[in-house]
Amino acid sequence: MPQNHVADDGVLATLQTLAMRDDVDELEIRLEINETTQIDTLHNRITRQIHNVDVGGNVRVLLHGVYGFVHFDGWDNLGDHVNEAIMLAASGYGVRTAGRTSDVSGVRLIQRLAFKENPLAISLEAKGAVLLHYADVARSAHPTIKSVSTRYFDRYRHLWFVNNRGSAIEQEKLDLGGNIVVVARDRQGVAQRGVSFGSSNDFGVVRSLEDEVHAAALTAASLLDAPEIAGGEYTVVVDPHLAGVFAHEAFGHLSEADGQVGDPGLLAQMYLGRHFGPANLHIYDTGRDAGSRGYLPVDDEGVVAQDVDLIKDGVLVGRLHSRETASRFGESPTGNARALHYRFPPIVRMRNTVIGPGDTTFEDLFQGIAKGIYAKGSLGGQTNGELFTFLAAEAYLIEDGQVTRPLRNAVLTGNVFSTLANITAVGNDFTRYESGGGCGKAGQMPLPVSHHAPSLRIERCLVGGRGR
User: Fold this and answer.
1) Does residue 415 contact residue 383 with C-beta atoms inside 8 Å?
2) Along the 468 residues of the chain, how does pLDDT read in single tens digits?
3) How many Cα atoms occupy the beta-carbon half-sphere of 219 within 13 Å?
4) Based on the number of CB atoms within 10 Å of its own CB, is 353 exposed (0-12), middle (13-18) or buried (19 or more)?
5) Most Cβ neighbours (<10 Å): which of 16, 253, 285, 346?
6) For residue 158, with 0-12 CB atoms within 10 Å meaning exposed, 13-18 middle and 19 or more buried, which class applies?
């Protein structure tokens, strides 16, 4: 766990002096050092290898209901940047808001990373060798494996934040992730499967993936002669990975309060107290899971992380806030104001989206299903308001309560509200899943997030097949 101490760093002292202005309603200053590594491979060679460092910061000022935001590269002329942000707000050309934000106590801390295995201490050559090793593992698994690509990144951030409310924060952050994609090909077509990884404190998650890569290769090969799924309405069991993706994409984004502001239709659907799903359905957002990519002890407005219940006992009980949206709704800030980089202002974003475990065993999830679908993982998808579409990475036919044979191209579609209502069992196989992807919103992507969940059983789920 990080060690927290009262902040007495010289950088913070300088920034605090600049932030003490009484001619604005609010003033925030952020400085950052970002060190980024990225490695891509294809077949048995490295195709891209990047290591760079960028330094900069931003100033955000709230004055008479208008935000002035200025970002800059380098740390020169900080006082001038403060004045620029004030002038932008005073001119009325900044971003207009509700005119107020929720009050929070000032936070003073220094947070250092506690690595399990520090990726910054590992050479580019050693990182690349690990990735190329997995390509060898996949190719040797089955003769139909024709292509293996890998992607790895790590990003270390050292940042300083102060505001005129008394906050003085120094933080170290790490985001690490990637994936290994295995492609099988024969005369019948093409199929792929992947292994993904991520962490906020440990290069070790990249190691010892041989068994997973080998299994992914065999699965991709097995999908080559799998029949196309017959579209229709099924009882579907989704694994923890796909359940977590559903919670994040289909429901989590609807819970972000900045999307609800000014949308009476969505507010009419997402009213607190509405019943969603079974009585044991629990969905929440947290930044306190150390090691997860969404780990965020303090958000980018200086609000301390907390668990935020969204659905509790099957009832909608909360939403995700920045200080500004919390003020609009008359609720408390939740620590969900996040910025991808110093070039962006913080907006409302998820951290780790979690479906709590239920009490149904994995085996019992399938009982009584005469003909259904078992869907695992996700190859992507999209949402449009309350509507969603996801392509499962793997799908299998369920016959008389037994998983029988693989199927190709299972596309799950539906309405998030009716789908939540159709959840009839929540598994006890809770799994923490860390992917190498990220969340996109308002041009800020890929933001590190995680999703943790058990398997779910969903009745009357629309599943469509598609051509090769």
Assistant:
1) no
2) 334 444 456 899 999 999 999 899 999 999 999 999 999 999 999 999 999 999 999 999 999 889 999 999 999 999 999 999 999 999 987 777 765 677 788 899 999 999 999 999 999 999 999 999 999 999 999 999 999 999 999 999 999 999 999 999 999 999 999 999 999 999 878 999 999 999 999 999 999 999 999 999 999 999 999 999 999 999 999 999 999 999 999 999 999 999 999 899 999 999 999 999 999 999 999 999 999 999 999 999 999 988 999 999 999 999 999 999 999 999 999 999 999 999 999 999 999 999 999 999 999 999 999 999 999 999 888 898 899 999 999 999 999 999 999 998 899 999 999 999 999 999 999 999 999 999 999 999 999 999 999 999 999 999 986 543
3) 21
4) buried
5) 285
6) middle
Give the residue ranges of DSSP H helices in 261-349: 264-269, 323-329
Cα separation, 367 vs 349, whole angstroms:
38
What are the backbone angles phi and psi of residue 222, rounded to the nearest 5°? Answer: -70, -25
Chain centre distance of CA 295: 10
Phi, psi of 408 (to 5 degrees): -105, 145
Radius of gyration (C-alpha) of the chain in whole angstroms: 24
3-state secondary structure of 327: helix
Distances (CA, A) of 294 to 99, 195, 299, 384: 30, 19, 11, 24
Asked if 135 and 44 count as a contact pair (C-beta separation under 8 A), the reply is: yes
The pTM (predicted TM-score) of the whole model is 0.93
| Number of C-beta neighbours around residue 72 at 10 A | 19
CA–CA distance, 429 with 242 (Å, rounded to integer): 13
What is the β-pairing status of strands 45-63 and 26-42? antiparallel
Strand partners of residue 153: 38, 177
**Nearest alpha carbon to residue 150 among 449, 447, 445, 436:** 436
Pick the closest to residue 294 from 315, 317, 320 (CA basis).
320
| SS3 of residue 92 by DSSP | coil
Please check whether residue 187 is in contact with residue 175, taking contact to mean a CB–CB distance below 8 angstroms: no
> Domain 4-223 carries which CATH code?
3.30.2290.10
Count other Cβ atoms within 10 Å, centred on residue 191: 24
Tell me where in the chain the CATH 3.30.2290.10 domain(s) lie.
4-223
Q: What distance in Å separates the CA atoms of residue 62 and residue 85, rounded to the nearest whole number?
A: 9
What number of other Cβ atoms are within 10 A of residue 360's Cβ?
20
